Each structure stands twice: as C-alpha cells, then as structure tokens.
Amino acid sequence: MIKKELIVMLVIFILVDLGCSKSSTGPSVSSPVSPFTSYDFASILPEIGEYGEDGLHIYIDLPANSEALIDSVEYWGIKYKANGYGGNYTKESTEIDSTHLSIVLDDNLIEDLEYSISAFISIDGLKLYSASDTITVKETYPSSPWGLGLSSQGSVDKIYGMEINGEAYIISCFGYFYKIENHKWVSKNPFTLNGTTGISHATFSIGEYGYVKSSGRSVLRRYDPVTDSWEAITATSFYTDEHLGAQLNGMGYIFDRNDCYKYNPELNIVTEFSNYDGHELINTFQTDTAIYAINSLFEILKFNEMDGTWEYLTTYPGNHSEWIVSFIHNDKAYIGLSSRYHYPGHENFNDMYELDLNTLEFRELSPFPYVINNSWTIINVSLNDYCYMVYQKSSYSYSSYVWKFEPDEIIYSDSVK
To answer: CA angle at residue 221 from 377 to 181, to 5 degrees?
Structure first.
C-alpha cells in the first residue's frame, strides 16, 4: 500500500515538472520599456576617454530608449571645475546625432589637479544636469610647463622660499618651516621667532647650510638640514623691515630698502657693505656667477660684488604691479606673475617672460594656465631642473598651493595657436 502511494506521488511530481517546463518555454509577453526621460538623465555619469593631442575626450552613452529625449535636446555639454581652485568651465556641443555623445576638453585642465565633472543638456532653454564625478587629470591642456606639484598647506600666513643643497624649503613669517618632499609639505624644526604677521625673512644658502635673517631681529640664524636644527650664529646691527638674500662665491648678502650687508662665514661676521639711493628692490635671483635684482620700477639690475653697486641692464616688459616672481635656469630668467594685495587694491597678472641673461632679450611665454585672484603672496624657489611657485589665497586659512614649473617644457606665446 505504501509502495502504491509512493508511485502515485512520483507520477504526479513528474507531470507537474513537465507542465512547468512547457510553460517556461512557451511564448512570453514582455513588459513595455518606459522611454528614457530628462529625469533619468540625472543618474548618467560622464565617461572619461583618452588623453589625445587635441585634449581630453569625454563621452556620454545614453540607452537605446532615449531617442525621443535626444530629439528635444538643443545642445549639450560638460561642466567642470578644479576642486579648491575657483571658477567653473563649460564646453558645449550641438552634435547630437546618436545615443553616443562625445566632446573634447582642450582648455583649463591642469595635470594632477582634481576636477568635478558633470554633463548637461538644454531643453527649451532649461539646463538639466547629470550626476557629478571626480577625476584627477593626467595631462595639461593647453600644453604648459606648469603642473600642480604639491598638496595645499593652510594657516602659515606670509611665506618665503629658500634652496638648500638642491632642496626646496619654505619658511613662514611666524617661523613655521617646511621642506617640499615627495609632493608633500614636510614639517621641520620651526624657526625660533616670537614675531607677528609683519615679519619678513632674507634667506640664502652657503655650502650645506641655510641662513635666515629676519626683520625686527638682529641675529643671523643657520639651519642644518642633516640634524634639522637652528643655531644663532652671529649678531647684526640692523633691524630693517624688508629683506632679500643671495649668496655669491661663498659670501652671503642681505639687501634691504637702501643698504647691502655682507656675511663672511669664515669670520662669522655681518658687516655693512654698501648703500644705494635707487628704488626699492622687490625681488632677487641669481646664477652661479652673478646676483640680479628687480626694483620697484621693474628694472633688471646686476650686482657688483666688488663695491656693492647695481648696474642697470633692462626693464621688464610685462604687466607691473607691486611684487613679481622670478625663476632661474641655466642662463635664462623667467619673470612674471606680478601681483599686489594691499592698497590700492588686489591685482594679479598671469603673464611671464623669458630673459636671456647673455643677450638681455625678452621673449613672452604662454601665460600661467590658471587665473589667480586675490592672492595674499606669491613666492618662488629655483632648483637645478625645475622651480616651484607657491601661491597663497587671501582667506582666513591662507591656504597655499604649490605649482611646479619646468623650464625645459616652456611654450612661447608666439608658438601658441
């Protein structure tokens, strides 16, 4: 009896299984696909394509059911912004002939900067945006010798650059001290100073040591990068407000508004070397054999180490403001990015020029590729193969952004199409 029941149950199971198999292979009725609408566009992400000679290729792939939406689009485009750096940029296109949309971004892109990027479509004059994505750009467009070399550093106030043993260092007016290393600000032993925001520093290096003379202080201090330590090595007789520094043939030089002081490391003394009645010096740069300066009239001067006088060479042809940046590489000086923060108002220029120190001829470079507005200060550090420019925003945090300048990759303005 039990066997009969088992056999009946087995037969029923087989019949049910066969019935289910037939129904699963029979004709099916598909659900209707809803058309792709402008609301669905909000979930689309731009697709990052190749980095070509013409720019960064961006794609938008829409589903097959978006034909009705495409027919109503007037134009579309890409909106992008360098995170932490200001303005928004857009690139638009009216080419909308398929569900695969493509566009090329060829401007305002800086290598190693992080960007927010999204797409948009315009329907009846109304812009509708896609989802936003974050990318780190791998190439600069248009081509430029500039690239973002380092992360930002906040709350250091006014800063000054110095080179020691081919390495870049930055000192703030408060005495905070950093080394630029592996694309980061590396904190070093702070400069001993009980000053305020008005402090300025003259910096130079001799041999393996760096030297700093601060305004409002009489002591010259020496920094040892091996032990990361500061030492007060000798007293001076001056407390001037503004300083510039340089070194030549084993001697250190400190320049203020109208005087030059000379440091002899063998005797460990600082003496007044010369006076000059010219206009205030605002920038110095140097080769291995000469020291140069730029005064407030933007005249380029050459220092005479025999008597401490300055020889006029030429005048900077670019935009003039209050301060200026200079780099040196081989026998070429790169000068520009003139700026002003205080009265009569904020001002920033992005033009730069190459000065051949042998022929004294200027040639204009392609401009700095990012618009700088309302800078608190801009400083420079020249190394053997490249240079750094540090730009500080005028804000509560005084965030600093370090840009790397590579002279071997410069582009002249007359070669920019």
So the answer is: 55
